[in-house]
D-alanine aminotransferase
Amino acid sequence: MEQWVYLNGRYLPMAEAMVPVEDRGYQFADGIYDVLKLAGWRPVRFRDHMKRLRESCEGILISDIPSMAEWESILAELAERSGLSRSLESQCILYIQVTRGVAPRNHLIPEPQPQPTICAYFKAAPHYTPEQRAYGVAVSAQPDERWLRCHIKAIGLLPVVLAKHAARKAGAFEALLVRDGIVTEAASCNVFCVKDGAVFTHPEGPLILSGITRGIVLDAARRLGIPVHEQPVPLSEFRKADEAFLSSTTMNVMPVTVLDGVPIGTGNVGPITRAVAAEVEAIIREELEAGVDLGAGLVASSQVGK
């Protein structure tokens, strides 16, 4: 796969794609982003991702971005130039970023606003090992020091960068974020725990980014008849969970078996985690097989997510 970038109406090799120094994304982290997974030319829950992208832009007062149909056209051209395989067995990641654009440096939002800087590119999907899937990963509790609009997928990620760094230094795979004693989510994932046969996860709202895969997990649990409780879980209760797992676009479901060096439950991947993970894979596979490629009327199709 070649690295091509869509940048403000142009398609450029990665090495030639550049933005000005006074782009507000560069100077103020004044922008948003989204990440999609594709199998071949078919994105997982395209409509859901595009809806979140638009709502995040609206949340920071950025307008004049492409419509969903325009995004489909842009991304189909980008997929063609990037040499993306159409095989559903070939997976990759799409990164999209929108900033407020270029303006003389000033904390005030410019009036009138500049044209947003819009970029997108495909990259290889991250690799997770069979051992991680089979035996689970470790997490480390870290303070949640983010702003209070976490439902906006903003590019200002320094708090989670530092939390993830601290977790890795502690020998963990991921940081478990804790605010006022409550587990909110992980540095780049949503988080779930299982107790007495039920799944618990933090409710939607400004303290978490409600992931697209989080929604698929909830769908999977309902299909399996597993009770789900969207409610705050104290860290002290999370430590007593029978099972735990993470969800994200790039990895779907990842079991968690260790928290701060101490096993969760038996220390093994639990039956509910295994069942939910398998059902999430099945839902995604069903939707992809029933879907259509970018550029082939994806937006008009009913198979674009909920």
User: Anything to note?
Assistant: The chain is about 30% helix and 30% strand. The helical segments are 24-28, 46-59, 68-82, 130-135, 158-169, 212-224, 235-238, 271-290. The chain has two domains: 4-125, 130-288. Residues 193 and 238 are 7 Å apart (CA to CA).
